[in-house]
Amino acid sequence: MANYYEILKVSPRASRTEIKSAYRRLARRLHPDKNQGSEETARAFAKIAEAWEVLRDPQARSVYDKRLLHAQMHDSGGGDSLFVSSNTHARRWRQLVYEHRYNEIIDRMIAEERRESLALQKIIFPTVALFVSCLVVAIFKPQLFENSAVIGKIILVSLFVAGVIHLFGRIRDGLQRFTYGDEDLHESILDDNERKVKPFSRVFAGAFLLLGVAMSFGVGLLIGNLVQVFPATMPAMFSHNLTPEFIFYPPIFVLFVDLMHGFASRVDI
């Protein structure tokens, strides 16, 4: 039975990121297009592609790990080996080994799925918070900056800068993890696998973000013009018109939402 970990030159306990890096490194070196169509490198490339196809998927990797464990147990030693002996104590020992390895496989699957879930949340929460904050700002048209003292303005500007840096960082990480760019499409060795792992293009993701922000502002302005309650009752905090200071509030809102989500995630852990 082929050992995909040995083919990719990684540890059986390697993370998906480590396996992906190993695959990409080997794929670029062994791709037939870069080796004058060599039959030997073509066979090697087919092996690493097969290994990556299995090991990149947590469920498929779990099934493969169990099959590999069985194969290793039965191929290790002769008739007197503990791996194949019919002795009662040997069978009990083998069962303990199986259970230990299975638990390792399951724990790794759970950890991998949890990392993927947290990574997805780190882009979903800021994106939703951005859309909601744009909607709320367009509805209520706050003017806290204009009516704040100097110290208040300094605090708002500081929070705005921190929020912008944080928001761009989250968007960048999300785009790198869940989208593929045009430069990836020019690398034939990555086309199919990148599309399976990263189903959206960066152009689509960028258009979705811009359209979402525009629609949130548009809907918010429409609702705000129809229902103008706060500007009439609290003119010191809210305005009838959307002033340039509206750009301060969405990044600040996203920053606070993400901080609360991060705190809740740590408490949950």
- Rg, nearest Å: 27 Å
**What is the multimeric organization of the chains shown?**
single chain
How many helix segments? 11
> Which H/E pattern describes the elements?
HHHHHHEHHEHHH
Nearest-integer average pLDDT: 79
**Widest β-sheet, arrangement of strands:** 1-2
Q: Give helix % range.
A: over 70%
Helix-strand category? mainly alpha
Instruction: Give the overall shape.
Output: elongated
Largest beta-sheet characterization: 2 strands, parallel
The beta-strand count equals 2
- Poorly predicted runs are 184-191
User: Distance between the terminal alpha carbons, to the nearest Å?
Assistant: 38 Å
Give the topology:
Layout: H1 4-8, H2 16-30, H3 39-55, H4 58-74, H5 88-140, H6 150-178, E1 179-180, H7 182-185, H8 191-197, E2 200-201, H9 202-226, H10 230-233, H11 249-268
Helix pairs in contact: 2-3, 4-5, 5-6, 5-9, 5-11, 6-11
